[in-house]
Each structure stands twice: as structure tokens, then as C-alpha cells.
Prior knowledge:
Layout: H1 11-26, E1 38-43, H2 49-60, E2 64-68, H3 81-91, E3 95-100, E4 116-121, H4 127-141, E5 148-152, H5 159-170, E6 174-178, H6 193-196, E7 202-205, H7 210-213, H8 221-228, H9 232-235, E8 243-245, H10 268-287
Parallel strand pairs: 1-2, 1-3, 3-4, 5-6, 5-7, 7-8
Helix pairs in contact: 1-4, 1-10, 2-10, 4-5, 4-10
Amino acid sequence: MNILKLADLEVEEIEKILENAAAFKSGQKKINYNGDKIIANLFFEPSTRTHYSFETAELRLGCKTIDFEAETSSMKKGETLYDTIKTFESFGVDALVIRHKEDEYYKQLENIKIPILNGGDGTKDHPSQSLLDLFTIKEEFGHFKGLKVLIVGDIKHSRVAHSNIKVMERLGMEVYTSGPQEFKDDNLKFVDFNEYLPKVDVVMLLRIQLERHEEQMSIDKEEYNKKYGLNNENVCKMKDNAIIMHPAPFNRNVEISDDVVECSKSRIFKQIENGVFVRMAMIEMVLGTPSKNI
């Protein structure tokens, strides 16, 4: 099976991934493929957390890994995405983790017979990020139904936002978006940041893609931090048990102030930690449980 977008998974399958991730994290579940499985990581966009979290998960499971470098590959000679992926299938690898800048790149790969784990596509989906976010929320609150989530920032261009909103609403959460008007997605519930900040259980910040949008922003970085960022003043407006999340990397002192990154409400580095266990559970789902566990 593939994991391309969470919309393809039943709620029971999502819950099973989260259950297995918790078991991996607690040490109750241990499996080892003993080098019998090879996973190729093909990242056509820069990535630290997703790329190396997947690789850490693969190594923890006893898989062998291959890291693909687009800049030194035959794609520089004009090779297509399909032919590159078909080549890795022909090598005999057992699964692929792929991130690509094109929306739904995987539609080109329907003839590929080995499992594909989507590491993020364009502005559409980021299933492993959504799952680790869900895991972090479940760990914090013990449930999903009725929780209120405010996602703030560059909503229009964010695969994290689009992927999260769909699955969170399926699980019974209320999701709102906010930020500067130029980042608004007209298809989503867009609210006033200051009005909703004290009402929600989770504030999820998104990175402002300064390399793409700084010149287009109607406000500068300092004003953004004051109006839509989490600084000490805004954190004080949050509910006592509310938490702060961010998929990272983050722009310090833009969407989040230096002294808030690791404050008592922040779960940012907990998300990164949880990502390894969630990705272990995803890999197990597509490869199956090895016949001999450790």
C-alpha cells in the first residue's frame, strides 16, 4: 500500500498508526527488519526534519537506506520523474519516501508497484507531518473531538495547513485559520487572530516563506510578530492548557519570538521527537511486520 494523502486512509487506519507510534515511543513495540528491507529517500526539495526523521525511523527499524541527490542525478540530463522512480524500483528497493514541489506528483507514478510514502507534495498534502501533529495533540489532550485549533500564517501556500485541516475535521476538531489577508484561503474558515487566540486549545503557527513572500507582504517582520506572531504578550492571552505547535523550520522573532520557542506551552521540539515514532509506524504499515521481531 501507499500513504500519499490521509484522505485515502480510514479513520481506523489513522488511529492504528497513532497507536503503533505510541507503542514504539513507550518501548512496548519493537520490530527489526534486520537489514532485509531497503528504503530510498528521494527529496526533490530541501528538508531537514522530514528527510532525516524518516531516515532515523528507517534505521531504528533495521532498514537499509539510500539517499537520492537530485543535483548529481540523471535528472540534470533531462530524465523524467517517472523514469528516476522506475529506476529505483528496478534496483529492488522495498519502499520509497518522496518529496516533490509538484502537487500530486504521485499521479505520474501509478505504474510503480512498490510502496510510496509521500514526504510532501507542492501545496497539497504532508501526511507524515499531519500524523505527528495528531500524535502530539492526542498525547497532550487524550482525545480529538471538540478541540479547537487555530492555524496561523501562510495558509494559501501551506501543505501542512491543507493536510491538517482535512484530517482534523474528520476527527471532530474545529479548525480556524488566520493571518494577513494576502495569505488567506477563501475555501477555509478565516477569523480574527486576536478574537480567537483566547478561545482555542492549539495554536499552530506556519513558517512565513520569506524567501518567496517578503517583498509581497503588506507588513514587515516586526509588525507581523506583533499582529500574528506568538510573543510573550500574545502567549498570555492563550488558555491555560493551550499548546503551541509549529511544523518548523521557524523564523525566530517573526511568527514566534525567541523566548516563546521553548516556553512551557510550546510543543515544537516534542513534535520533532514524535515524528520519528509516527514515521516508524507508517513504514511498518506499508512494509508489514517482519516475520521475526526482536
